[in-house]
Amino acid sequence: MNNINNSKILENALIGVEFEFYSNKSIDDTAKELASLLGKKIRVESKAHSDFEVTRDEFKIEPDMSGGEKLMELVTGAQPYHSGRMMIIKVCKWIEENGYTNDRSSIHLNLSFDTNKIENKHRISKMNVLKFILDFKESQVFKFFPERKDSAYAKSIKFVLPKSDTYFFDGLNITPSNFTFPDSKYYGVNFEKRHKNYLEFRYLGGADWEKKTSKILQMLELFILQLWNSTSSTSFTPLNAIELRKILSKNERIIKSRSNWKNIEKGWNGKVKLTVDLNDNEKIIDLHWPNIRERVLALFTHGELNKGHINYDSDNGTVQVEGGNLPYCVDLRGYEFVRCFLRGEFTECDFFGCDVNGSDIHSCNFYQSTQVNSSKLESSYVHQTCVLKDCYIYGSGMMKGKMEGGIFRDGKYDKKTAQFSTETEKILYTEV
């Protein structure tokens, strides 16, 4: 079945969708109307990311308080191609008439193939991820959804690095084990899902995405066809080699910095400085570089750092960044940030006098007048000097600062220092 036409490929496809949108109606009424519109059962869940597994005939709708009480997510089971297309058309129309979307909203496409119709039932679970990345026409996606090109939650998958400092690509032979490439859910394609024999495409979304139905359907077809074609063979083509060379060339300054930290300052035109214990002695940095290299380089590969002072504090083993600009962070953990601008995903980090926007934050600490906007904070500590605007707070942290708008979903706050605006919604809380 490798040489079948496009129509047959599409007929073999299964489509599941995650619709993120704001509804002007209650979640119960939204579920009732969409169930009638789609001819499916829709369960109303009390929290996001519930354990209920959707099926072909029973979906779920969940509150996503990170964007306010009206933000919801409809998660569907896998549908045959034509039914899936019609489902997308109907839901987009309903949202246009009964709700809205903004830059916090997206539509994720979970794509697979009907294993009852195809010969290779494991073509996705056993796919060659690197080949898919090299085949994928990502520029076409950003042509239709240009605002998503700079999204911290749908980063480009065209990011490949050699594992070895001494590896040299000859331009011909491609061996996937020689390279690292995206493996986090915050890229445009979530390859973690391949183990369940489907891929999640996260590229699409942004303000008014429900009004771009034709573009969404074009992308849907593009994704399916490229997924099929790239999984039809594990062999790399001459075009793959050209694409890999192009990607490696784009990442040349990171590759050079792996072998010699001195290339950091050169590669970023003096906008990035590296010290150890605030000392720029080359011998001292040489001594520590093998142990701190991966953590330092992650600031570029996972945070897209383009300026700032990186310091390694050898007393507590912490990598610190001062005056940094990190606009698109993925899974950064265990850093200290001082007077930085940041956006993305952070775990177990400390922030001092920073500006944090549109981020997913887990078990972090905020100090010295840090400003956090439009972010989700789980089990985090917020000092009384800090201000949170339009944020969603939950978990076992401690809130001592000021909240303007947003939702305090659950947790503890200091009744002596914490301040909440009249627009802030407090649901479950403990005063201490």
Offer a concise description of the structure.
It is built from ten helices and 33 strands. It has 432 residues and is α/β, with parallel strands linked by helices. The protein is flat, with a radius of gyration of 23 Å.
SSE order and pairing:
Elements: H1 6-12, E1 13-23, H2 27-38, E2 41-44, E3 58-63, E4 71-75, E5 79-80, H3 81-98, E6 99-100, E7 107-113, H4 129-135, H5 138-144, E8 161-162, E9 179-180, E10 189-190, E11 199-201, H6 213-230, H7 238-250, H8 252-259, H9 262-267, E12 272-276, H10 282-301, E13 308-313, E14 318-322, E15 325-333, E16 335-338, E17 341-347, E18 350-352, E19 355-357, E20 360-362, E21 365-367, E22 371-373, E23 376-378, E24 381-382, E25 387-389, E26 392-394, E27 398-399, E28 402-404, E29 407-408, E30 412-413, E31 419-420, E32 425-426, E33 430-431
Parallel strand pairs: 2-3, 12-13, 14-16, 15-17, 16-18, 17-19, 17-20, 18-21, 19-22, 20-23, 21-24, 22-25, 23-26, 24-27, 25-28, 26-29, 27-30, 28-31, 29-32, 30-33
Antiparallel strand pairs: 1-4, 1-5, 1-6, 1-7, 3-4, 7-11, 8-9, 10-11, 13-14
